[in-house]
Design a protein that fits this description.
256 residues; alpha/beta; 4-stranded mixed sheet; two-stranded parallel sheet; 11% strand
Amino acid sequence: MLQEKIRSAAPSKDWASYVVPQRWDEFTAENHAVWDLLFARQVELLGSRVVSPFLDGIDLLRLSHPGVPDVEGLNAILEPRTGWRTVAVPGLVPDDIFFAMLSERVFPVGNFIRTREQLDYLEAPDCFHDMFGHIPMLAHHDFAEMTRRIGELGSAAIAAGEGEREARLYWHSVEFGLAREAGDLKILGAGLASSFGEAHFSLESETVERLPFTIERAVHTPYKHDAFQPRYLVSSALGTTIEAVLELTPERLLAL
């Protein structure tokens, strides 16, 4: 029965119904100013505290250009490089739709941006979280392939009624993972890379746990979506996380 569910976990085409126009021309001068403010302070904050492919991705995708990026311009650079593209969505999409998108190398980005009053916290991910936090790493070939694999695993896990396993793996790698680079502790996850407060906290707080990343630990470690994390999983290197996820099969994920 489990094998049948896994085999039937073909990516859903329903995700296309969640795509909306970005309407880039409707972003106001204030919207663009907020992006520029967020970008400038986050780049200064991160410095060398984030894995180097993230900074490479910012340069490759020209995200330092003033104003909110438009998805078409972003895709013109990203798609020829790693086969990924971005699409605009009005907000959070359901997990099955999200993982189906990832499995087809499609990343959803919010078609809105926070206000100045929301600089430090926004409950729903906006285009800054999505574009600044996630897209730079999708210019890295191996990480991009790992993210596609996570989409496949997520679709299989949801089909088997075990979606929370893959949600936790995604959370502790793509969103809030840490990694060692040349011996130094660095930010890997997009949720940390795009967060002003938690970026500091994840690396410097003496009150949190930092545990070695393994697939099994990630799958079984709960997380908080409305507060700073009480624990972070640390990979010995970016490549370690990538290799572990690429080697993971749906059968093993569901057996853990």
